[in-house]
Design a protein that fits this description.
Layout (H helix, E strand, L loop, with lengths): L12 H15 L5 E5 L4 H11 L5 E4 L1 H10 L14 H11 L3 E2 L3 E6 L7 E5 L7 E6 L1 H11 L4 E5 L12 H13 L5 E5 L1 H9 L6 E3 L3 H7 L5 H8 L6
Parallel strand pairs: 1-2, 1-7, 2-3, 7-8, 8-9
Antiparallel strand pairs: 4-5, 4-6
């Protein structure tokens, strides 16, 4: 990036479109803004939730992000994955914004110790020691859908279950279809993250903008300084 100090340097069209779309979420979103945050990269997602809390009306969570919040509430996790080192951070977020963050009421679980999948739906307080949370249950899907229908702006980052396995993709698919049906006119919907974008494309679901910047988009939304953007701001072009 040192080259920007000595040669003409500009943001390309793709970078410009990424920044414009993310800026719309970060600073210029129409209310209500609803965040749908899932996936496995909890360390990337919690700072985004913190940064956008003042603007967001509701935050709907799934995947390991939801599991980490549930663990912060002392809910039984069984064999479910979650970020142990970020439970305290999740607890602080819940304490400051419990009315905005909606956690799952019920979840799809399977027993991981058997060769044959034994799948059932239980309340989050009733997950057994040999069970793994794999998707959201019907009550939770319906509650999330009701909040999504009120939105004018939607940010979706991360699938809501183990969506690479079709049997655990129900929540992501049902709510993805809802968001896709509302986008391109009724709301501004942005989907980010490679797995989530890939899931939408796989199921032919379309929204206003697909962010392909990966982790950089989450860092941008979380307010972190990005070296590439900073170089363009302080490089040759800015001194002309």
């Amino acid at each position: 990036m040192a080259v920007t100090r000595y040669l003409p340097s500009y943001a390309g069209l793709f970078l410009q479109s990424e920044v414009r779309a993310l800026e719309k979420i970060k600073h210029h979103s129409s209310a209500p803004l609803v965040l749908i945050i899932g996936g496995s990269k909890v360390a990337d997602k919690l700072p985004v939730i913190q940064k956008l809390l003042p603007r967001a009306q509701k935050i709907l969570v799934g995947g390991l992000v939801a599991n980490t919040f549930l663990a912060a509430q002392k809910k039984p996790m069984g064999k479910s994955g979650f970020s142990k080192e970020l439970v305290s951070m999740a607890a602080k977020i819940l304490k400051s914004a419990s009315r905005k963050i909606i956690l799952p009421q019920d979840v799809v679980v399977d027993i991981v110790s058997t060769k044959k999948k034994e799948i059932t739906v239980v309340e989050t307080a009733r997950v057994k020691s040999n069970q793994r949370i794999s998707d959201l249950g019907a009550k939770t899907i319906n509650e999330y859908a009701a909040e999504i229908k009120k939105a004018k702006t939607i940010l979706w980052a991360g699938t809501l279950g183990i969506a690479e396995e079709p049997v655990y993709a129900h929540a992501s698919l049902a709510l993805g279809r809802l968001v896709s049906g509302m986008a391109l006119g009724r709301v501004f919907a942005l989907v980010g993250g490679g797995d989530t974008v890939g899931f939408f494309h796989q199921h032919k679901l379309w929204v206003d903008y697909f962010s392909l910047a990966g982790g950089a988009s989450l860092k941008f939304l979380a307010g972190e300084r990005l070296p590439g953007l900073e170089a363009l701001k302080t490089g040759w072009f800015s001194r002309r």
